[in-house]
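::Encoded backbone::
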Amino acid sequence: MRFDVITLFPEMVTSMTAHGVVGRAIDQGLVELVTWNPRDFSTDRHGTVDDRPYGGGPGMVMKVEPLQAAIRAAREAGGPAPVIYLSPDGDVLDGARVTGLSHLGRVILLCGRYEGVDERLIELEVDATLSIGDYVVSGGELPAMIVIDAVARLVPGVLGHAESASQDAFADGLLDCPHYTRPETIGGLQVPTVLLSGDHQAVARWRLQQALGRTRAKRPDLIERRGLSDSEQALLDDYRAGHLN
């Protein structure tokens, strides 16, 4: 999986290569991360990439020409790929979109700054716009890093255990179940007995029930969107009645 990132702060994005899952994936050749700085494509000696907005108002707007040149250079270097602009007015990133991106093989991520980018660049070069939530951060770099991390986890071989991604929160449209490790008792709190039983079917049923209960309590919208089978509904009913299997 290759990620090309158009950014004024490449060092911020490439800091991912030194840590964690993405860093290991890059070392193993499973993920490639390439950055393109629009300043390198500016046509004046000052490396200008922004200008005052037409119509007045505070802040600056990123210019079309250097961004367009950077995007086209990225396309030429790695072949055709969708350009995704990170912006609060985009579609909210969710598990389904992450999965879809992981199947593409390559994406170009455009990081805005200041008041955003000239709308004409979006019309000319951008294929989709993504948001990480209904709030504003200082630029597109952090959202791009979130996209990279989330998508990279789904690339085959990136996670150490083959089932890790499939058991993540949202992988089945549900929040994750609670997890425990040693010791068995701490602060007067005990690990649930079922997890010590060695009964793999019972453990799987308990984990599903916990995931259903947590999702119903914290994110009922996910339940409504996903729907439940008859057996899942029965597990959820027992959870809500306090009959934990």
Observations:
- The mean pLDDT is 93.
- The beta strands are 2-6, 32-36, 50-51, 61-62, 83-92, 106-111, 128-131, 185-186, 189-190.
- The radius of gyration is 22 Å.
- The CA atoms of residues 51 and 108 lie 24 Å apart.
